[in-house]
């Protein structure tokens, strides 16, 4: 789904972005990363001890973002280690489990922590994972009438499993979305199992990273010049409207993964 | 391989002999018992009872056949057998011998162990020797060889079963599996030897009862089975059938295969070597450690013996001996119960070494679940931590559930203290230690890391936390574990350092975390490859990278000893704990909920510190008191784990610190009292039961140096808190979840309600609700008395000044000014309260008849409200305030339709008989009310009555000082971060109490022209300076007045007493009366005395007024009259009203009614 139209044949500027994943234990942080990095899914993934480190590139039309992903342990007692990992992070994925209300509470704590302690200007995405466990109609049905069309668009990209089983969703899209908007977070519901929406999350983050906060990747030639040139065009990146429609963004520009 | 390990050994020996003898920092010196236990891996409860230098002569099998059973001359054995010099230790149930000098003995010289090595310095069964449970000793004989040498010959139960079987089937002595015999020559004085032997005899007798346990455990040892195989091979007779048992459980590996290629690991050869060694030197409990055992462990353990040797070297085998059924009992005990830990475990069961076939089966998963669950029950403080699943899964490949369970206990409690705790302080601490070791040993690499901003612990933390199990390929991780269990945690550091060293070149090129990690990942993946693939030397080519790593770890980093680790841990412990605590604090404060927003960040921070500080210090004191008690019974009650690790020199002092793991988070009432005593003046008791210290100890919660001399009083060095009914009410009010304990959240919310809103109306309502027990909007007679009592209680040390209040900043700044101003304020407050009580009863509504009289009362009250509105205080601002406040009342009062006043019912009560008689002049000449008290129902017990919130509000607002109290003083009395703790000794001494007694005293003092309290009198430990007992209260005051020669007062007193007796008889306040004449120390008594109700309480006022005015008899008289004149403080206000100027009682009371009803109307 790489969309490299805007780049032509010229080597695109490349920069690294440090991204940290936070969230309650067993919400699927590592699985999201595994899906994003290897397009793979393991039913029984070993719990992350401390943190795991992975990288993946994300191609945007006019630049390449190399994600340095820090996937942290989710158990409560590992929380005190987190500052070690979100140090200098430019972006964060705060993950919760759609089927577990307590995980959203924990996610909110993480958001608060990041907003106060992490680097200023950190781009935070709130991600409800395990969409595959929910009934496709549930987000509109049980959750609420308040879902906008744009939200449905985002839902639609997720090829939700057709489940005969009962809907396990416990957190409505509207509730989480309202919170995300209040805190100016990117918001997605994903399934690491099916892959639904996963790359969109990372693409959206890549797009939301202000150009100014990008550090050049090692070996990227003429970084400064290129970025300066780009600066004029994408100068407004630093003021990305985080609450704006993101589903379109995700559909338009994709990751090379 | 063997050559290699020989090399390692030699190198190590060389280095070890050069090491300085271990000396531990005096500050955190572990206890001798702990070192002892750790050296021999003994369970808690073992203490070194006797020790003696000794020589161990050990006759291996080859020897034994020819030598006699006993009494072979030592000189011969010395050459034919194995000979070690060392020390023999006797503890409650173990006899231990080691050539390794014990770290705790100043006389222990390294020379005695120089021949053989081990560098664990009291942190593992290093050196050669044995650790024999006394119950494993079958026979001890004293040899008769040479009279001047005290020699013991020890026979053990080693392989007793097999021996019998062998004897039964085989007559040939050559093949009998015999027990090795140990001969020990004691090298002490004869007396020492005798004493030692006596102790041993006693221990042996005690040990008999453990024999059954020993048999139980040892039959399940794989070595027992292994050795039984040998005779079977040679004699395939009936004996083999009788022993055709299944081998004991040696882990999942027996079913699902052990990791690695057994052939490549040379498992068979290792097994044979071990069998040979154990035949010679004993098995499991009776194993004698000879130099060979260290080598055998270094080359890697054979699969099926791995579990048992781990148990033996870690000491968990000894733990099991104590209670062999602990595992099954624990499981049975908690069967069916649920916990958070179990939920967490369940999440991870399917993700623990998922590639290993055993953990893809229900069998393996089941074992893992049971072991983790059982441990979470035995140690709820740790519960379950991710990484434990991986470690336990690894253990279960090699050992049974029971074994894994006890080994996990040893791991968490001793080897990795704090690693898996809820704050993981052990992990973080060891990361810090590891970093410092890298800095020390590889400065270039360290500089590079710092320069590139690479955080080492990001890489190394998982190594330590999961013991390399999910970093290295399993077979290598297990090799590390082999050594780790023998030599202790330092192995983890040595291996870690070696890994960095081996990759040094490449790491120096890495400039970010990512590259750093991937270099090491690649390295781990290639551990089995040749370290020198291009070498022409074949042997060198065969050396794998792992072997090289181990050589580097133990050779190059041989200097890293347990001692080093302990030292470093001690060095960084405080910093690490502070970090954790700061993090916890930050997180905690952030999650306190919306009410916390009403307080400033520094206030929250202060409350957090104070809250946990109290809990921490209380726990600490409790511990110390308990320990003190325990010490009297028996010395040495310390925990080995903390001590040896250097985590805690004095475990008691460390308990409860937030950073160390689960600490109490709930405050009980006593803790709450202490908490309040720390932030308010009024919560400090007036009559300390223990001598109070002149200086309050510095708050040591976050300090790095902890005072060791905390007095053993239940309150430690902090001021003893009072116990007042008000505090109980406050506690209940804040305890919103009715758990009989307060969380930080409760406290913050509680304080936020009191302090966060600077709204007098809210504070008044708050106070009222505190006393409105049944939430019906009414406070009855009892409640009124309690309120008054609480006000007096809160105000007895003076009120907090407020910027707009009674005291000007100037006065505050100059001490003397502040003092005198304060006194004035205090007295005004007393008078305010007394007036309040009076008025309460005046305006109280009877519980009955309220309906009928409502209308009438409303009309009259409205007039009064008008009056009161215009009642003059010279202070215009106050007027305005009051006006506003009354306006504020509007809404609420109007809703309160049926809250009428009945004060004209005019039943004659004792009080009413007093009031008119004392109605004379006043400081304010206009104010008069001779009939106001006619409505006073206070002293008529037969009339149930109550006040409502509007009434209460009105009564509060009617008095300037009370108004001030509710406006700001009450909130200000909680000193948070913005103002320092007020409890300076002088402020706390009871001489500063604003009680009736002191008021009386001050009035008499001022009468003589010398303000006695102008300079604070240093504490006289609870007794007021002028002989008025603190509790004597009103009575004492009246006495004072009497001695001032006021006859009127005598009369008054009589009447008051009369009234009092009247009350007594009526039994309205019986519990108070009973205690009335207590000597005044008890809190209850004091409270009750203060409570001495409406009529009497007005006496305060006398004191106050008296002091203001010119000294002299006349003034005193005035005071007394005021005392009796109920609406004292009201008078000045009404006095300003021209219409009422004449002070006609009727008018006055009418006006008051009017005022009241007016409020209702609004």
UniProtKB/TrEMBL annotation, chain A:
It comes from the Eukaryota. GO terms for molecular function: GTP binding; GTPase activity. PANTHER family: PTHR47978. Residues 135-147 have a biased composition (Polar residues). It comes from Viridothelium virens (Speckled blister lichen). SUPFAM superfamilies: P-loop containing nucleoside triphosphate hydrolases. Keywords: Nucleotide-binding. This is Rab GTPase vps21. Transmembrane segments: none annotated. The keyword Nucleotide-binding applies. CDD domains: Rab5_related. Residues 135-165 are annotated as: Disordered.
From TrEMBL, chain B:
SMART domains: TBC. One of its GO terms (molecular function) is small GTPase binding. Transmembrane segments: none annotated. Residues 872-881, 1073-1083 have a biased composition (Acidic residues). Residues 907-921 have a biased composition (Low complexity). Gene3D superfamilies: EF-hand, putative rabgap domain of human tbc1 domain family member 14 like domains, Ypt/Rab-GAP domain of gyp1p, domain 1, Ypt/Rab-GAP domain of gyp1p, domain 3. Residues 803-822, 859-870, 891-906 have a biased composition (Polar residues). It comes from the Eukaryota. Residues 300-488 form the Rab-GAP TBC domain. Residues 55-74, 803-825, 849-938, 998-1038, 1057-1162 are annotated as: Disordered. Residues 1141-1162 have a biased composition (Basic and acidic residues). This is TBC-domain-containing protein. It comes from Viridothelium virens.
